[in-house]
Amino acid sequence: MAPGVPTLLLLSLLCLPSLPPHVASCPAACRCYSTTVECGALQLHVVPPGIPPGTQTLFLQDNSITRLESGILAPLAALRHLYLHNNSLRALEPGVFRAQSHLLELALTGNRLHGLRLGAFTGLAQLRVLYLAGNQLVQLLDFTFLHLARLQELHLQENSIEALEDQALAGLSSLALLDLSRNQLGTISRETLQPLASLQVLRLTENPWRCDCALHWLGAWIKEGGQRLLSSRDKKIICAEPPRLALQSLLDISSSSLICIPPSVHVEPLEVTANLGEDLKVACQASGYPQPLVTWKKVAQPREGQRPSQAQPEGGAQGPGSHGASDTGSGMLFLTNITLAHAGKYECEASNAGGAARMPFQLLVNLSQQLQLAPLPPLTVGPTGHEPLDEASSMAFRALGLAMQTTIAAAIALLALTALLLATLICRWRRRRKKALGPPGEGALFVNDYSDGPCTFAQLEELRDERGHEMFVIDRSKLLFAESPAETPGRSTPGPAQGIPLQPPASYEIHC
Questions:
Q1: Separation CA 446–CA 423 (nearest Å)
Q2: Residue 405 has what pLDDT?
């Protein structure tokens, strides 16, 4: 072999087209070439395993994928284009795209997304185009797209979007195209579009616009300069209501015709007494144009030293059976399984673009089955003071019925009398125990002293100490025997036979 052949062979091998190292690991039934993987229309229910880590373009459209599991896309950090349109996705887990920091285009058109959670697009710092058209979105919450600072196109057409919160588009400072056509929008606020400093194309057509005072700013904005964002077709923002303005273009309506009727509120009755364990429904009727949104809240009682105007609404969980009020927007307050904690002051608020109106409602809770609550005399503090007790601390007792209040007072008095009688009996028993003598042999002092000879009762002296204990003490200075009353003082005794007979020596046990 010629000396130059190995060199030529080596050069030939080096000049061959380089084969991607991941071709051999292509998922089953998918097609892989270069940095692209095609897995479309394969009736897949999940993202297939084995996708090469170096993939930059991934086609998963026209399948039946219902969910993107957390971490399923983590190995695909090199993705630039991801196509998931026409699947059955119902939700996006927060952080599911966290590893796709280089993704430029994301297609989610034609899925079944009902809502977008906060953090669903975290990690997509380089995303330029986002397709969300043809889903079932109803509302866009504040800060939904906060992490998409470089997004240029946002396609939201053909959904069921009824409302955008004021900060729903916050963070989209680079957005150039916003398509909200063919939704269910009735109104849109100036604050919603304010973050879109780079906006060039705005599509708002084919929505049931409600032409009232809330849209006055939009008509003025389009006439002043916003029309440059709208094509001749997009300028036809047609009113759906009120009926007198239906089918007219917003730009053709005078500002004086865009009116709102402030809401009015009616709650009947204003005070209800409910029994423990009952369920309660209270209607709040509101009128106005546009139709007011009705909310209920429970008003916190003012604390000591706080004016009533400073009281803040109570927070906490909302919903039936909770200590707060149900905010349903339907005008109904629902409370289930009523307890003493439900008692208090509530407030119904109705609001629309024309203003807000409020109406208080008082709920009393009766522990007895009595339906009417008798008024209580005002309570005072101190003998000369006239300051009422704190309302929050006495609210629970005041909410009771008169019969139950009387029962509780009688029970407390009976307990106090029982305690007094018991204390009296204990004192009397202790006194009797101190005075009573113990049983034979208990507490006795036995004296058996024979050192000085026997003693008689004539030598015993009775003593009593400060506690009333009695004792007998031998006094040796006394005579052994007392003198006989019949004895003559000067008479001598010649002997034992002639004197007083001596008793035999004996010992005595002395008890005290």
A1: 37
A2: 75
